[in-house]
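#onboarding

Welcome to the new folks! Below is a worked example of what a typical request in this channel looks like: someone posts a single protein sequence, and someone else replies with the predicted structure as tokens. Don't worry about understanding the tokens yet, we'll cover that in week two.

Example request:
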Amino acid sequence: MLGFLKKPVVVTAEINMNLVALTVVGLISRLWGLSNPRAVVFDEVYYGQFVSLYMKRIFFVDDSGPPLGHMLLALGGYLGGFDGNFLWNRIGAEYSVNVPVWSLRLLPALAGALCVPLAYQILVELQFSHCAALGAALLILLENSLITQSRFMLLESILIFFILLAVLSYLKFYNLQRHSSFSGSWWFWLLLTGAACSCAVGVKYMGLFTYLLILVVAGLHFWHMIGDQNFSNVSLMCHFLARGLALIIIPVAMYLSFFYIHLTLLYRSGPHDQIMTSAFQASLEGGLARITQGQPLEVAYGSQITLRNVLGKPLQCWLHSHTNTYPIRYENGRGSSHQQQVTCYPFKDVNNWWIVKDPRMQQLVVSNPPRPVRHGHIVQLVHGITTRYLNTHDVAAPLSPHSQEVSCYIDYNISMPAQNLWRVEIVNRESDTDVWKTILSEVRLVHVNTSAVLKASGFLSGASLPDWGYRQLEVVGEKLSKGYHQSMVWNVEEHRYGKSQEQKEREVELHSPTQMDISKNLSFMAKFSELQWKILTLKNEDTEHKYSSSALDWITMDTNIAYWLHPTSGAQIHLLGNIVTWASANVAALVYTCLSLWYLLRRRRKIYDIPEDAWQLWVSAGGICGGGWAINYLPFFLMEKTLFLYHYLPALTFQILLIPIVLQHLGNHLCRSPLLKSMFSALIIAWFSSVYLVYCTFRPVTYGEPSLSAPELKDLRWKESWNILIRKQ
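Example response:
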């Protein structure tokens, strides 16, 4: 029974020493001197703010993309014990002792280092030689721009890592497809493909380009499977469902999980809250939640409310009135009603309070039991402090003459009767009997007499009222409304049940906080939908940056970015690529395109210059590497945003992988004689030596040391368009 103990347990393993060596040198190249410089480098000033907010659990919105990349950077800070206390206000600012610089930069550096063995593995899985794979890895290793970008608290190296991991995983899955479908390793690589794609998109939306590429390649491969009679219908359906699960359902689920973790971590109110809806703000700890906690849920006749405009950008504002009236005549000579002004005011104020009144009754308090207001009900809105009724009529608005003026009605005993009835339309209702709810309901207020919709027009025009209107935003009755715009939608933010019929007592009541116990927590999907929409639609004003560039500048590297400059010496760091590698990548792409067109024309004439398996290899490699370059580069010509050189790095990575593919193809199929092969090998060695020489030449501005003198810095300005910083003596 114990006979198996008579023999030793032997474990055998195959170790690819090329892979081990590449991983080690990749780690050395990215981790060496990682804390240098101990100062804020370029976009660390941007991402560092979010890391600090994660450490303090304060909610924020970043319109640059999803939260996974920010969370990974924050993980580095958490592992290093960062408390979030640092003022990220200036590039070049020295880090205080509480900032774990090495830890904050660690994950991007590890991701950049692992890109080296990933490049090797991708070419091996594409069925190219180990020599070609080694060449691809060394080109990634010696690419100055990739080194620079991976050594700081930035996201591009993490993005490139997940992109390459997704490509490698799919290639491994595809190669296993031929002989071990539905095996454990088959499932592992297929699931890892979907997970890596989701992570790439979760770091930056640029990852979506490679995800689409993999979906297209997977679709083409499955299309070929459909034509293979060796697969039964049941087998094809299983393959289809497996791919759908791994490449669509799981990535979507993971993408949602990134936001779930993000929202779970950031539960405290912060400065970014104001662009979110009242419901979202009320779900955060502190801020609006302290004001709205325990408010009545259902708006009733007699309710005292504040109405916030849903649009909320460029700033939030509330329906507001004050005792001042519109001037009798405006500056342009047009007349007004001289009624009490109604505006949209961007600050909380007692003049933002209104009372919901039943037109059939005189009381301004909530009955017992309360009578809720429902969709379609007619109400009057009474200004809490001045007790005048919200009104609109056929008088042109001050800034929007094609819209109606909105006012609080003053009876001047002239032929201008009050028109103060409003119909409540709940935009996000589930049925026509829905009750108007605090925070949750988004409503339009439609004027009964004229069908005009209450609208905060100042958001769209960008203009505020003149001095007589205290520079507040204009509110109008929009007459020509088909459908609705968010500027026409309002929600109740603060709410109490009015108890005082006397005006003096009611004014005291309006100044006091509310205390009632009803919860208004949003579901995760509601919060996700709102946050995702804000990320996609919220756009900061794009301004011209000193180091911004166009997509055309990237191919020839006619631009650079100065990341850091030592305050006293000539030490500096620049995002500059290895110019030999960049030029070679462009040549490789051109050669691949020309050769492919030549082969296609010849094959059309039934002339086959290379064997069929070599042709399939050539096409598949080009589809992955050439397609990866194109899909990560060409979309930037359609983008209206400020662009920088680092946006090109994912496309560049794919283009670099194309270099050894083209070189091996030329050596195998065009250099047929031993002499030509020897000459070609000698040229490759000379070319690779030049790549290494350029890497060494620009190493001081890649790592920031050693410090260079002014003449040495001038010698590095190989192009006039490069902005190498030289101090005046």
